[in-house]
């Protein structure tokens, strides 16, 4: 396969600075890396946090964002044995990890202190050609719809792992806070596929009908409901057994500690800037609730999450636009106006 010397990318030089759609050099894979010709990339709210510099972890600068890239392997380093040219592969958030620390050794590679992150510390998928450590790159089965699978690479893997972290049983209630967004719309479907009863929380009629169409049994509109806590507890007859927090609202996250059922589990996934999760200690103890953090997923979680997609059990509601339109997508995302996920076509 012939690989060009230059390519289109969206790159920024300072956090919050101009998002420039321009020609940059095609990266050369290191011995442990593959070069993926990215066809489509999902846009995750994390990419917006990275551009704005929201978190207490510095990004690489200048930076090409993106970590839901799906494409074709067009070159590989001399040490790579698990991918062939022509295979389908994905750039995910965890680009690489040390594989030697105590966390990597137990399969918690995302928690590696030396993790290399696509679209954060390593140029990501908002370009036509991106490098990925072959150990962590996602394997995508031949024949897979690349635009459809892109959001699975972060949003899908993350919510699938978060649902496992909640340790719920079929028939129990799970609340998805932020159910109409990119992660939330997939969380609803994974939860339904796992036999859970889903209550979605988000704002607006469009998100309400999306959540219902994906199998959500109930929907609470936080923009219209006076007492969100009481309403959720009423619908679920005492509170959901688990909550997956994928909203970017600190208030919504703290609220979930109140409406969760006695003995229930609150899973933290969404990462609003400077947020603190507040849980009143008395109720926390007497109800014996648990708050757990969940951070993307490991290689096995990735393979399992993609398998749900391949089997037709989950499908991200996507809207495809050109790579050059990333700045517009961020504007909509900032307003909470995106229903499902935007996916960028890197050829436009
Ligand atoms: P998104 O913008 O697509 O979705 C967020 C949704 O939350 C929107 O639909 C919005 O309307 C809704 N929302 C806003 N306020 C709310 C409230 N008070 N109650 C309920 N819903 C509310 O974002 P996304 O791409 O799905 O990402 C969500 C968050 O998850 C981001 O902070 C992102 O950085 C984070 N994230 C974390 C991980 C992880 O591993 N922990 C992985 C990926 C993304
Ligand atoms: Zn993401």
From TrEMBL:
Q: Which GO terms fall under molecular function for this chain's record?
A: alcohol dehydrogenase (NAD+) activity; zinc ion binding
Q: Which cofactors does the annotated protein need, by name?
A: Zn(2+)
List the Pfam families.
ADH_N, ADH_zinc_N
**Which Gene3D superfamilies does the protein's record reference?**
Medium-chain alcohol dehydrogenases, catalytic domain, NAD(P)-binding Rossmann-like Domain
SUPFAM superfamilies given in the database record:
GroES-like (SSF50129), NAD(P)-binding Rossmann-fold domains (SSF51735)
Q: Which CDD domains match?
A: CAD3 (cd08297)
EC number(s) recorded for this UniProt protein? 1.1.1.1
Keywords attached to this entry: Metal-binding, NAD, Oxidoreductase, Zinc
Question: Which SMART domains does the UniProt record give?
Answer: PKS_ER
UniProt GO cellular component terms: cytoplasm
Q: Which residues form the Enoyl reductase (ER) domain?
A: 16-344
Q: What PANTHER family does the entry give?
A: ALCOHOL DEHYDROGENASE 1-RELATED
Provide the family line: Belongs to the zinc-containing alcohol dehydrogenase family.
Q: What is this protein called?
A: alcohol dehydrogenase
Organism equals Ambrosiozyma monospora (Yeast)
